């Protein structure tokens, strides 16, 4: 059983198309939380605390993109955010998030490779924790998120070591900052999955 679980985590960094990604998370849903917790998954807490340190209204609506089973929602709740909506492409993952009573105001099934499940003005804060990597969410999604945030809205997201091997993410962040669309309000490199020796950047972008 342990070997099978290891395969799910390893596989998450190898899938590179939406169909394979959906199949992986469908099969992984039942053991996802146990496996990532066993490997010390700390990125949700890092992201939630970074966002809370910059937020001026913890009661403002927040969208948790790629919320999965709700680990990120738990971290955002612990950091003080009171109005949380979640979205994920995996109905199997969402079923676990729904079982956590009161964790999310609303849960939406949405595909990050398609238009975001939000329109301008819906949210002051958006999170994408452990979402960005090839086959999961394209670099273009960073601009898509910022487009629906209000001025001074905040977007927190993580980029682990595997994601940073794809230059498109750095290039998109550089473009966004260079064009004055957003400013980097927070950037920190630290632990992601210590049990696997994987680290991640946590970013918070502020819409200008």
What does this 3D model show about the protein?
By secondary structure, this protein is α/β, with parallel strands linked by helices. The chain contains eight helices and seven strands; from the N terminus they run ααααβαβαββαβαββ. A seven-stranded mixed β-sheet has the order 3-2-1-4-5-7-6, with helices on both faces. Helix 1 runs antiparallel to helix 2. It is globular, with a radius of gyration of 16 Å. The N terminus is likely disordered.
CA distance, first residue to last residue: 49 Å
Q: Mean of residue pLDDT?
A: 87
What ranges have pLDDT less than 50 throughout 5 or more consecutive residues?
A: 1-8
Percent of residues in beta strands?
A: 15-25%
Biggest sheet strand line-up:
3-2-1-4-5-7-6
Q: Indicate the multimeric state.
A: single chain
Name the overall outline. globular
| Major sheet summary line | 7 strands, mixed
Rounded to the nearest angstrom, the radius of gyration is 16 Å
């Amino acid at each position: 059983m342990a070997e099978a679980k290891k395969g799910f985590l390893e596989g998450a960094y190898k899938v590179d198309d939406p169909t394979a990604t959906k199949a992986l998370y469908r099969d992984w849903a039942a053991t996802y939380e146990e496996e990532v917790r066993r490997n010390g998954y700390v990125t949700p807490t890092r992201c939630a605390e970074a966002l809370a340190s910059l937020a001026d209204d913890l009661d403002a609506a927040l969208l948790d993109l790629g919320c999965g089973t709700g680990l990120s929602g738990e971290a955002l709740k612990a950091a003080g955010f009171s109005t949380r909506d979640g979205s994920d492409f995996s109905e199997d993952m969402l079923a676990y998030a729904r079982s956590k009573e009161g964790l999310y105001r609303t849960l939406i099934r949405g595909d990050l490779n398609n238009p975001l499940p939000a329109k301008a003005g819906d949210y002051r804060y958006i999170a994408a924790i452990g979402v960005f990597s090839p086959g999961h969410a394209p670099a273009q999604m960073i601009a898509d998120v910022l487009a629906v945030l209000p001025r001074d809205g905040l977007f927190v997201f993580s980029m682990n070591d595997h994601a940073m091997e794809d230059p498109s993410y750095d290039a998109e962040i550089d473009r966004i900052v260079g064009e004055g669309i957003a400013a980097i309000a927070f950037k920190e490199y630290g632990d992601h999955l210590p049990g696997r020796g994987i680290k991640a950047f946590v970013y918070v972008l502020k819409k200008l």
